Amino acid sequence: MQEAENGMGEALKKQATAPFSPFEWLLSLRYLRARRREGFISVIAGFSFVGIMLGVATLIIVMSVMNGFRIELLGKILGLNGHMMVRGYVSDISDFDERVASIRQVDGVTYVSPLVEGQVMASSANGGSGALVRGIREEDLKALGPVSGGILAGSLDGFDEGGGVAIGSRLARSLGLRLGDNVTLLSPRGAATPFGTAPRVRSYPIKAVFEVGMSEYDASFIFMPLADAQSYFKTGEGAVTAIEVKIENPDEVRDFILPVSQAAGPSLQVYTWQQLNQSFFSALQVERNVMFLILTLILLVASLNIVSGLIMLVKDKGRDIAVLRTMGASRGSVMRVFFITGASIGVSGTLAGFVLGLVFCLNIENLRQGLSNLLGTELFSPEIYFLSRLPAVVEPGEVMAVVGMSLFLSVVATLYPSWRAASLDPVEALRYE
């Protein structure tokens, strides 16, 4: 009999000291279901859950939308412009055919195109607007997917034969021009006369109207055959103003500066897309980091709600804690009970926010269109945001970082209240009972 009692005692002792035992889980979940007189504690727990859920969901949505912005804008900008631009220091690039052939031999280079660029005033009977004329060969223009794949009217076939231009859709609409109409181009760099420099004015028929999906480009770009551009801007048949270069991976563009410079030859300067658009993408990165810090405060406030709720729960359950301690519960067991109670709120709120954020991101364009129709207004104007749709790209690494940060804050928030519960003296708690 004595041996049986000793064996039972040892078994109970092992069960009582086992961390995160079923007893601790049962008691923790019981504390989450507060009775009527503990309703205020339950309300705080509910607000904590909602706060963490909204914080995680908002962070995932905002970071995904800003990732989508960067990827879409980068795709539009680099789809129409090269990853690298080769220009002369003080003059145009002569003997460009030899330089283009030399650059094409560089490993990793996928596209090389000679260009003649210039600022002009494009006008018609209905008005005028500033524009960027880009002289380019037909084969190179067709290789630009955003342009060749976005032809709304006309065709690029026979573009090199001259006598016509391709114009952006928004520029065509602002000037009231259609396919076959003439657009008048005025350049300030004209012929020198005794009375000063006379502007150069010529008219060209519109052979194609394109739309790349980025309002800034659709409202300002005009493509002209290379030979016509050389004649219009007086560069000569053997010279261009720039050579455009594209590589396989735009993020590795710095590694190509030296080999492309050597292939292009002396007296030429190589610019990367990062240098040409540095201020724009730096502003996007700063905005992204600031938004992350601001929205993290939502998670911090929700974590503080967990702290306050648990402290009130510990104060309210002081007598229960004292009884548990006198019955043999260890300090670690009491601490784990309240740790599970607080962590359950954080974990469940994080998981709910994770699901809500992903569902929102996957349906964000449909939700935008629904809200626009409901409110009768355009919530995402292409003239302001440059893009015609609201992008959202979910990156698993960032999502896991948000979820991990939320779980970390939720766990840390439970440590002090749990330690305070474990430090409660049973004698003091039951002194006046």
Automatic annotation (TrEMBL):
Tell me if Iron is a UniProt keyword of this record.
no
Q: How does it sit in the membrane?
A: Multi-pass membrane protein
Residue spans crossing the bilayer:
40-66, 290-314, 334-360, 399-416
Give compartment(s).
Answer: Cell membrane
Q: Which InterPro entries match?
A: ABC3_permease_C, Lipoprotein-release_system, LolCE_TM, MacB_PCD
Which GO terms of the cellular component aspect does the record hold? plasma membrane protein complex
The signal peptide here is none
Q: Could you tell me which residue ranges the MacB-like periplasmic core domain spans? A: 49-252
Record's superkingdom?
Bacteria
Specify one Pfam family: MacB_PCD
Q: GO:BP terms for this protein?
A: lipoprotein localization to outer membrane; lipoprotein transport
**Does this UniProt record's set of keywords contain Cell membrane?**
yes
For this UniProt record, give its keywords in alphabetical order, as a comma-separated list.
Answer: Cell membrane, Lipoprotein, Membrane, Transmembrane, Transmembrane helix, Transport
> Where in the numbering of this chain does the ABC3 transporter permease C-terminal domain appear?
293-426
Q: Which family does it belong to?
A: Belongs to the ABC-4 integral membrane protein family. LolC/E subfamily.
PANTHER family noted in UniProt = LIPOPROTEIN-RELEASING SYSTEM TRANSMEMBRANE PROTEIN LOLE (PTHR30489)
Q: What is this protein called?
A: LolC/E family lipoprotein releasing system, transmembrane protein
